[in-house]
Fold:
Amino acid sequence: QVQLVESGGGLVHPGGSLRLSCAASGLALNYYSIHWFRQAPGKEREGVACLSISAGSTDYPDSVKGRFTISREGFQNTIYLQMNNLKLEETAVYYCATGTWGSGSRSCSPYYEPRVEYDYWGQGTQVTVSE
Structure:
C-alpha cells in the first residue's frame, strides 16, 4: 500500500522558516516525480516545487525561487521542502504528490496542472504564516 505522509507544518512569523517532510512508503521514489503543492482557502491549488530524482531535475515557480528548496537526503524515502522567508500569503495546506510511474526519469514541471495525472497524494500539512 502506497502512502505519502507530510509533516512539519505549523505556525511561523513572516520571514521565518519551516521544513516540511513527505515520507513515502510502498513505492520507489526514483520512478516518480515528486511535487509539493499548496492550497489556501478559496484559492486554486498551486505548485511550489518538484523533483525528479533519476533525471536529476528540480524546478520552482518564480514566486518561491530562491526561498524554497526541495531535496532528498541520501537514499531516504523522504522528500523535504525547506521554506525560508515565508510570507503571509503563503498560508495554506501543503501537499506532496507523485507523478505517474516513469515520471522520475523526466524533467518535472513545478506547476499544478489539473489535466495531468498525479498517482499518489498525501493528506496535507497546515502552514500558517501570521504576525
Q: What stands out?
A: DSSP finds no helices and eleven strands in the chain. The CA atoms of residues 69 and 92 lie 17 Å apart. The two ends are 40 Å apart (CA to CA). The chain has a mean pLDDT of 96.
